[in-house]
Amino acid sequence: MSRLTNQELEELEDALIEAQQLLAMSQLESQILQQLSGAYDTILNNTLNGNLTTLNIISILLAVLSLITGFFGMNVPLPCLKNPWLGFGCP
To answer: To the nearest 10°, the Cα dihedral for 4, 5, 10, 11?
Structure first.
């Protein structure tokens, strides 16, 4: 077994300290990147929620319009059309 000199021991201790500092810095960088990624995801989710809300409102309006036009497009007699006061004419 070989013995290390005092200078070699000091250099080894310095290298260990630097390795610990590097580990701490890399963990800190990792946490910062995770927080930035989380903030970016939150912003994207809020934008997506707004877009989906708008599209949902448009689809509901189009569904109501298609329901009304589908009802009037059927070949069934409608009682409100026989009223002369509505201006549609009497058959």
So the answer is: -70
Residues 39, 2: Cα–Cα separation, whole Å: 53
87 CA to centre of own chain? 51
CA-to-CA distance for 63 and 47, rounded, in angstroms?
24
Q: State the pLDDT at residue 23.
A: 97
pTM across the whole model: 0.54
Q: What b/e sequence results for 12-31 when a residue is b if at least 16 CB atoms lie within 10 Å of its CB, and e otherwise?
A: eeeeeeeeeeeeeeeeeeee
